[in-house]
Design brief:
Blueprint: H1 13-28, H2 30-39, H3 44-52, H4 71-83, H5 91-105, H6 108-120, E1 125-128, E2 144-148, E3 151-162, E4 169-175, E5 185-191, E6 198-203, E7 214-224
Parallel strand pairs: 1-4
Antiparallel strand pairs: 2-3, 3-7, 4-5, 6-7
Length: 232
């Protein structure tokens, strides 16, 4: 019995080319996969390779270092990753979630600073919403940020954060007004190499996705307001 390969009807010839090229890269990682599973995460070099191949931020405009494509390009990459059974790569969080937030809500200076670094793999990005005891219920998160002059003081903890160990750039969901419920939730960009008080917890053991970096994060830190992207 033969198995016919499924091709989504939205996939253009260009999307297919991206898929086929990415599939070769993901399949080339197979010899490293056993070690990555033991390590609990893929190597940072894999991110840099994906960036060099143009497989990071594929839907971000070229003026910000991206591939200039659409979300179909991101989906084509995800199809290739699934086909290669390469579950450890957190590229969709990085390229399909964090990058669009910055593109939509960042200042021009922030977009020009962060997105090119994400496109090359110099920066790995994560989004931190889930918390111990509250899951992903953003209205009830406990992490909060308090204005201190031109800075924010952030206190709280997060868990099950994809790319948490590698991340240089984290979109952190927190309360900036604890009296407003869901309306008081903001996203603050944390450059982990540039703030004091940020701490990575353990890389979590999981039943599946064992080569995916999934971490606990803790913060009691100052973040300079002029260096953050704030979306309310």
């Amino acid at each position: 019995m033969s198995i016919e390969k499924f091709t989504p009807n939205w996939m253009t010839e260009e999307h297919q080319m991206v898929h086929d090229s990415a599939l070769k890269m993901f399949q080339s990682w197979e010899p490293k996969d056993e070690q990555w599973r033991k390590n609990g995460m893929i190597d940072r070099a894999a991110w840099e390779e994906a960036g060099a191949m143009g497989f990071l931020c594929a839907s971000i405009p070229e003026e910000y270092g991206g591939g200039g494509g659409d979300f179909g390009h991101e989906a084509a990459l995800l199809y290739a990753q699934a086909e290669a059974n390469q579950s450890g790569f957190g590229g969709m969080v990085h390229s399909g979630i964090v990058a669009p937030y910055i593109l939509s809500h960042g200042t021009e200076a922030q977009k020009k600073e962060w997105l090119p670094k994400m496109a090359t793999g110099e920066y790995v990005a994560a989004i931190a919403m889930t918390e111990p005891g509250t899951g992903s219920d953003l209205q009830n998160i406990k992490t909060y940020a308090v204005k201190d002059g031109d800075d924010y003081i952030i206190n709280g903890s997060k868990t099950f954060i994809t790319n948490g160990q590698h991340a240089n750039l984290i979109l952190l969901a927190c309360k900036t007004d604890r009296e407003k419920g869901a309306q008081g939730v903001s996203l603050i960009v944390v450059e982990t190499d540039k703030v004091e008080g940020f701490e990575r917890g353990r890389n979590l053991d999981k039943i599946g996705l064992t080569s995916q970096d999934t971490s606990e994060l803790f913060s009691a830190m100052y973040v300079c307001r002029k260096r953050i992207c704030l979306a309310q």
